[in-house]
Amino acid sequence: MQSELQRIIKDFALYLKYQEALGIEWVPASEVKEIVKKLGTPKLPHTQLEEIRKELGECNRCSLHLTRKNIVFGAGNPNASLVLVGEAPGAEEDLAGEPFVGEAGQLLNRILNAINLTRQEVYICNVIKCRPPKNRDPKPEEIKACFPFLKKQLEVIRPRIICALGKFAAQTLLETSEIISRLRGKVFEFQKIKVVPTFHPASLLRNPQWKPAVWKDIQLIQKLLEEENVQN
Q: Is 68 exposed, middle or buried, given 0-12, 13-18 or 19+ CB atoms closer than 10 A?
């Protein structure tokens, strides 16, 4: 995790300052190795995500395990600046075990390409990891069972921006019952990470008149990412 690595660097820097205050201008290599050993080696994000997936296992925490074909954990860059969170896998995602691979996924790819991003550069996941029968809406108990794993994914990746795709993603992350049309176009926060809600790509296939609104939201995300790059 990036924050863990930052802690280790900070601790080591404080140690060096302490040595300098004592008038010591160099530290023996053997002592440095011992310090590094005590501090430990931080786990890389992809390793931590693999551990979360192992913890999830062949999940039976809710009734969706009775009808799913595959768990759809998430895919993409574990060091991504942008994470896109949908609501639940569909039929094609259930078969492939990968998020957003159907028609809505193809539209999402084009949306990302419009701001010079690819699937490989971002991380994509869902609020729940198993497909609800007949693509029905997720139930509260299903979201409750799955949300801890989404939360852990976001804690590991620590993106700069989260794009919440659709009402269930937005309502879950923001702990609100507000409708998506009133949430979109604004910037919120989840665990100090900026959140931009917008319509789900699947809803755009049914309601193409919403595409201009989504384009504005995506441009907002692009602007936020550019501002974060300048600051860092």
A: middle
